[in-house]
Design brief:
about 325 residues, alpha/beta, Rossmann fold, 2 domains, binds adenosine-5'-triphosphate, ABC transporter ATP-binding protein, AAA+_ATPase, ATP-binding, ATP hydrolysis activity, transport
């Protein structure tokens, strides 16, 4: 298990200078965009669909330049947050700002490019026609880069979109958003339905762009192992609320996973996010416990380690599940 210090994410400084010539060429697209500071900020953001609150009390800050994973179970509000950021729907309450500018629903946002889960493309268009469509419908468009990405994908401009594989279509759809040179790229489940090779191509393309230009990326996914290598920032949504948010290294450092005798687990009380007991052994995720600090609540009979991202996310999801079950039981007792 690597400690927090050993985690070095690909999207960070190490690869920033990877392709200086390309970075230089791209600087013209940085105009009018503050890539320092905060990329996305929400205050009391909420969205209701009829009687369902898809998102509530959402106060978030995603710094510029990070690659941020938006995770959470089905129906947690991930797509809703992304659509609010893209200005495709209006908030019921609160506000959302992209690089300091309040998002006004329906107004174009040249700094942001959003790719929805459906990856909308016209099947009867050739790739050349698809790129032409991109050029005419976007305020900012880098045709040279679009063609470069299509060539990298091994595709021809005459290829018909309707005859492409799911993975190839994903790369055309990604080209359409990247050629807009966004300062903030928002991808809703970009790896869904992709085989491992196609997934890796999509990841590499996004990382290269982020490394060369400092682009901020927010992407949703259900597969933690997928985002673990790719992202340096995490937002966990459950039931329309932000459950965890921050740099992944810091989140891991604020938790410890402990394994020890279940007879002693009362000593951990107050720190446990979630515990699982099998036989006489308990494994628990402790919050707010870094290094020696965890030793103050767990005796020498407990093993203490830095959790994986998977362990942290799962513990919070299980805690929510347990709380929901407890609420249901309370209702039944009262009824
Ligand atoms: N257009 C809509 N009309 C009614 N309810 C909606 C609409 N869009 C979303 N919802 C509801 O809002 C909640 C959040 O949905 P959302 O799609 O944002 O979740 P999600 O985290 O993206 O889920 P998934 O991982 O399944 O894509 C759900 O309860 C969903 O049913």
């Amino acid at each position: 298990m690597g400690g927090p210090g050993s985690r070095r994410r690909v999207a960070t400084g190490r690869h920033r200078g990877a392709d200086q010539s390309r970075a230089g060429r791209r600087r013209k697209w940085d105009v009018m965009t503050d890539r320092e500071g905060v990329a996305l900020e929400t205050a009391g953001l909420a969205r209701r669909f009829r009687r369902t609150w898809a998102l509530r009390d959402c106060d978030l800050r995603i710094p510029a330049g990070v690659t941020c994973a938006l995770v959470g179970p089905n129906g947690a509000g991930k797509s809703t947050l992304m659509m609010l950021a893209a200005g495709l729907i209006a908030p019921t309450a609160g506000s959302i700002r992209i690089f300091g500018r309040t998002v006004e629903p329906g107004r174009p946002q040249p700094d942001l490019a959003f790719l929805s889960q459906q990856r909308p493309l016209f099947p009867h268009f050739s790739i050349a026609e698809t790129l032409r469509f991109g050029r005419t419908t976007n305020l900012r468009w880098d045709q040279e880069y679009a063609q470069e990405l299509i060539a990298q994908a091994g595709l021809g401009l005459d290829d018909r979109v309707g005859r492409l594989s799911v993975g190839q279509r994903a790369r055309v759809a990604l080209t359409l958003v990247l050629a807009r040179r966004p300062a903030l790229l928002v991808l809703d489940e970009p790896f869904a339905a992709l085989d491992p090779l196609a997934r890796s191509h999509v990841m590499t393309t996004v990382l290269r762009e982020a490394a060369a230009t400092g682009m901020t990326t927010v992407l949703s996914s259900h597969v933690i192992s997928e985002i673990d290598d790719l992202c340096d920032h995490l937002v966990l949504l459950t039931g329309g609320r932000v459950r965890l948010s921050g740099p992944i290294d810091e989140l891991l450092d604020r938790h410890r996973v402990v394994t020890g005798p279940s007879a002693e687990q009362d000593a951990l009380r107050g720190r446990v996010v979630h515990a699982t007991t099998v036989g006489r052994q308990t494994t628990a995720l402790l919050a707010g416990a870094a290094g020696e600090d965890a030793r103050s609540v767990a005796s020498d009979r407990w093993g203490i380690g830095v959790p994986t991202l998977d362990e942290v996310v799962l513990a919070y999801l299980r805690q929510d599940e347990d709380n929901a079950q407890r609420d249901r039981d309370d209702w039944e007792v009262r009824a």
